[in-house]
Amino acid sequence: MPARKSGSSQRGSALRRPSRGTSVLGAALGLSLVLAGCGGSNVAGGGGEQAQPDSEECAAFAQYGDLSGTRVTIYTSIVAPEDQPHIDSYRQFEQCTGTQVVYEGSKEFEAQLPVRVQAGSPPDLAYVPQPGMINTLVTQNPGAVRPAPQAVAANVDQYYSETFKSAGSVDGTLYGAPLGSNVKSYVWYSPQAFAAKGYAVPTTWDEMVALSERIVAEGGKPWCAGIGSGDATGWPLTDWLEDVMLRESGPEVYDQWVSHAIPFNDPRVVAALDRVGSILKDPDFVNGGLGDVSSIATTTFQDGGLPILDETCYMHRQANFYAANFPEETVIAEDGEVFAFELPPIDPAAPQTILVGSEFVVAFSDRPEVQAFQAYLSSPEWANAKAKAGSDLGQSGWISANSGLDPANLSNPIDRQSAEILLDESNTFRFDGSDLMPAAVGSATFWRGMTDWITGQSTRESLDFIEQSWPASQ
């Protein structure tokens, strides 16, 4: 799993469904449209020999040209077990173009990528989960981040909403095309366990609290959680706070908080974090199967929801991508071992806003093979190849906001539902707030502040600490 925080557009407007068509490479790449024998046998990460596709299978890759003898390096926060479907999704591109894609995943991505860029040794491409980090990389390292080439911009215009495009842009220039996306406002549970206990899926926040109290009264622990994630420890709590901010104060106040039009420690933020604490800091409610409240900080986010399977906890708030962490044989279905419901509204009469995120492909080189691979990653052909690769490996939890993605290629009903949510123009979205904030806050003090908070620091102390770290120039 990645050290995951994924963000998107601060505007958070409803997503529109762009028209479909064939992905565009564009003349800007300056590449030949003739393949030399459908390329070589390179595999992502330098793996072994693969069966070669025939010329018909390679026809769709002719637009990328003959890239024989070249290589493209990728640096990302996506690690095992989620890395393999990515690696597999590149193989036909490699075999048909002749290039080699070298994949490196790291749990220290957020800390190490700026170091590499400042040292003048960045990767060719990076999958950046935070628009705030894109902004920081662009503004603090002039010329290091390359604007998206024409072919990528054309694909983004055709297959993604303006919400996603603006999230990957800085001052109106597109730098990052969306890669994977996610729907964050979910609570994972076991339908089978709920049925056996006579529990109903809550439809309001008050019902969810009442259910939690019932589980406690019957001798159980309703919630489990984990926020450990290497250098990114703490990020799952930022999602909790963002979701509650949206439900308690609405999207307009949320936007003001994210942009620092109101201070980070505004009374409304204090109230929202205290509401989160009414669940996660209640020793009766947590940490089912894992320990006491403090164990939330030492439990990895990958392990945080697994006690649902043995009924030592019953609910775990996490995005659709959490599906990838359940054992391969786990049945994910409305009547299965695990499923998810939407984090309920606090005010049932208020419109619901969905918290979403995304990674973005950012380039530090404009060599032809790099631009060609960028274009492929922004295409519906890659989105469907990635979905199929995950399904072939029995993995769940990956979706894309690319309108050319066929939801039938996704491996479980939560993934398919999430993809449909992203493409439903009637929905209202906000991108992950910490991802949009300056990197010094969103992927630094916000994570640390939330970790200190869950281990005993007060709400006021934690929010004051984050507020004082906000860059004076932003």
UniProtKB/TrEMBL annotation:
Domain of life, source organism: Bacteria
Entry-linked SUPFAM superfamilies: Periplasmic binding protein-like II
Swiss-Prot/TrEMBL keywords: Transport
InterPro entries: Bact_solute-bd_prot1, SBP
Matches recorded under Gene3D superfamilies: Periplasmic binding protein-like II
Family in the record: Belongs to the bacterial solute-binding protein 1 family.
Protein name, entry field: Carbohydrate ABC transporter substrate-binding protein (CUT1 family)
Species: Pseudonocardia kunmingensis
